[in-house]
Design goal:
CATH superfamily: Vaccinia Virus protein VP39
Number of strands: 8
Strand content: 15-25%
Oligomer: single chain
Bound molecules: S-adenosylmethionine
Largest sheet: 8 strands, mixed
Length: about 250
């Protein structure tokens, strides 16, 4: 039930997390030029960033996710875009990816590495990256140290692995990568294609589920996340890290 309502809330939103194509492009252009790179997009959802990467790179892109309805939608988008020859949607967990070692020029993950954890993702995915090639992720981070108690408690429950940016940078270096660049997603990346449409969806579903306490509890949780961001967005955000395998 909880999972069903979660997916009813999120289905057909423009994106499944914060981000916009313009920031995918910004991160991509921080990388050195690559000739038709082979790219893996981990936790690709319905493939918003994945398709943008295909257009930007002219390379071959594989998107992996475990939620089949997202992958089905992604597959339809691949066909509509006429990119079936070089973009693939694959049902595979980021915990058990079955690719050859050193088979990708770039591994990309927008808003999804938190599922495996920043450090574990950097360590486990490293072997799939060709020598001296790239890993690009955006990940939730504290933008200032010593956040207020309310938001600190909230994030400890939601994602205890959240770190400050300097702590993330230490992990980057400790896991065998050099940092090429990093930047924080601006607030429009949260509102325009994610929290804005999500908030409207929550309001609609509140009417549908007015007599269903379980569904209302899930809607409250989703709304709370948005309220926390309204109140505390100066304290945390999602940070793009553009890394090169050493
Ligand atoms: C916040 S969404 C980000 C989607 C997409 N990268 C974007 O920026 O629009 C996180 C995605 O990770 C996927 N996911 C969750 N667990 C996963 C796993 N074990 N392996 C691969 N993907 C997973 C979810 O289904 C969801 O599509």
């Amino acid at each position: 039930m909880t999972a069903d309502i979660f997916f009813e809330i999120h289905q057909d939103l423009p994106r499944e997390g914060p981000g916009r194509n313009k920031y995918t492009r910004k991160a991509f252009h921080i990388l050195p030029k690559l000739d038709k790179p082979r790219i893996l997009d981990v936790g690709c959802g319905t493939g918003g960033p994945t398709l943008e990467l295909a257009r930007l790179s002219q390379g071959e892109v594989v998107g992996v996710d475990i939620h089949q309805p997202y992958l089905d939608k992604f597959s339809r988008k691949i066909e509509q875009a006429g990119l079936s020859d070089r973009v693939k949607a694959m049902n595979s967990s980021m915990f058990k990816m079955n690719f050859l070692d050193e088979s990708f020029d770039i591994i990309w993950a927008e808003g999804s590495i938190f599922i495996i954890g920043f450090e574990r993702g950097l360590k486990e995915w490293r072997r799939f990256i060709k020598p001296n090639k790239f890993l690009v992720v955006h990940e939730m981070a504290w933008l200032q140290p010593d956040p207020p108690q309310e938001i600190d408690d909230y994030w400890k429950k939601l994602y205890a692995g959240i770190m400050t940016v300097p702590e993330n940078l230490e992990v980057v270096s400790g896991c065998g990568y050099s940092l090429i660049g990093h930047f924080t997603l601006p607030e429009d990346a949260w509102w325009l294609e994610y929290y804005g449409p999500l908030e409207k969806r929550i309001q609609k579903l509140r009417i549908k589920y007015t007599d269903n306490p379980k569904a209302l509890a899930v809607l409250d949780e989703e709304q709370l996340e948005i309220e926390m961001f309204k109140k505390y967005s100066k304290w945390y955000g999602s940070v793009f890290f553009i890394m090169q395998k050493r």
